[in-house]
Amino acid sequence: MRQHGYKEKVKYSCNEHYTLEGEAEIQCQNTGNWSSKPVCRASSTVGIKRGRIFYNARKIWIETCSQTE
């Protein structure tokens, strides 16, 4: 992998069926770190009608879970 210099930018994208969370384009900072770290997330579609999950340190019914939580 090649090294990147100060103010250089890279663009991220995700494989099919994954969603990019964060900025698609990031920039190398003067600290040597990147401006942000995007991640690719898998779809959270669950094919069951009733069930409970452990989410944010609590048990909830799947039908009460939304993408805005």
UniProtKB/TrEMBL annotation:
InterPro entries hit by this protein: Sushi/SCR/CCP_sf, Sushi_SCR_CCP_dom
Pfam (any one): Sushi
CDD domains in the record: CCP (cd00033)
Family matches, as PROSITE patterns: SUSHI
Keywords assigned: Disulfide bond, Sushi
Superkingdom, taxonomy of origin: Eukaryota
Domain Sushi: 1-42
Name recorded for this polypeptide: Sushi domain-containing protein
Native source organism of the sequence: Ameca splendens
